[in-house]
């Protein structure tokens, strides 16, 4: 998904194929499913259904980069482009004056704005820049209150510098000067939110939504002056944007029917419920005092806008941050400087963040050796076709990524094996994995299938996982024995076939309700077809592995080629 490749994306286009053009294909899917059901050996033909379903999606996806759903071929006008670039520059300058380290610059990468590494290069594990505690959106702090001013002490980029440390008193004085004060509306709001969340009267999500609404209103109403973070919000869309983009703008019936069986099933209902809860909190907390401090008349539209922003810009800290579905992870951070950067789903491409309590700053750490000018990305492990559409109003036209819910309960599992499976992120049932569409089998998917296939024999599982080289480059792993690979392939085929069947449950209703609509008017179709393509690709690879595992000569040749580096460590899908 990211980092983006060089060059402009001017050649990108969408294929506005009417859904009714695929009606015959849906009929073929139904016929093929019946034929397969009548076959004596069902597992021999799982790709028959998959092949027909895949045809429904092939003509609907244009492979390029990320484009707005509403106008996938539009190019930003020069004046608008320049204006937005200046807004990014002003936002970063304001954040630096508030103590953010100078390790990054705003860069126009041709296909969008982001942050690029400034100055010299860095090695893996180096601190790229630091962010004061006060520059994080956090329900546990009250930076607008005077006692929090001391936490705003700045720290230099890449380990700090004497010059930056010497400027600490100046920055603290500036922070104190613009502090809202003990009795200010902002201080009261932050304290009320912190107390409500700590006392269980409001969820963390509700608290964050309230704080984000407050930050957006700074400078717009009396009593909430602008701060050094206000310019960041000016690079984001206005609240009314969500009326035409993202999951709240999608017709409820369309989302229910076309979202059925996909990873975004139930997201809209959950979002409506969560934003309604937050809106009630804003209206009723402190007997209406919270809403009065916010300037009054806080609409649901504004809360929904904040919901999309939080889900689009949440910065994952570690793998354990990955909660199920649409729930907001407890460990996801919201550092204001990283609102100016772009996301990646991969740990090896995105920076990590850790809190340095001694300095009172968050340290943004390089994932690998990076050159000057290289893009600094934050990690969004949820980034997929579904999340891009729902939270950013965009669609991914290439390198599709989906969260799969895989039923692996048919595999025998020794209770003692559960701890080992959980260690590698393969212990859940159903097993939830993010999988990308690519030419080789996703390594995490393949490695989990191998571990689950061995889970019935904890002795074998321990022997394999404790082997010096097998899991050394996790999630890349080597092939196991012929029987184990065959078991893993069979398990994967069964789980993937079930996922594909779930996608077909609403085929008749789709034909009936949306048979004459153009794809451009039903953006959820793109997510549905992208996830179908991901599943079909994996099914094809697993069927091939199953066939190879049944032939000793071919299997040995495949394993030898992997050892020689001719096949990726992901597990011999081809």
Shape: globular
Evaluate the radius of gyration.
25 Å
Low-confidence stretches: 1-75, 149-179, 566-574
Largest sheet: 7 strands, mixed
Distance from first to last alpha carbon: 22 Å
Proportion of residues in helical segments:
40-55%
Helix segment count?
A: 20
> What's the number of extended β-strand segments?
11
Account of the 3D structure:
By secondary structure, this protein is an alpha+beta fold. The chain is 42% helix and 9% strand. The chain is built from 20 helices and eleven strands. Strands 2, 3, 4, 5, 6, 7 and 8 form a seven-stranded mixed beta sheet that branches. Strand 6 and strand 7 form a beta hairpin. Helix 2 packs antiparallel against helix 19, helix 7 (204-217) packs across helix 10 and helix 17 (482-503) runs antiparallel to helix 19 (524-549). The longest helix has 26 residues, at 524-549. It is globular. The model is unreliable at 1-75, 149-179 and 566-574 (pLDDT under 50).
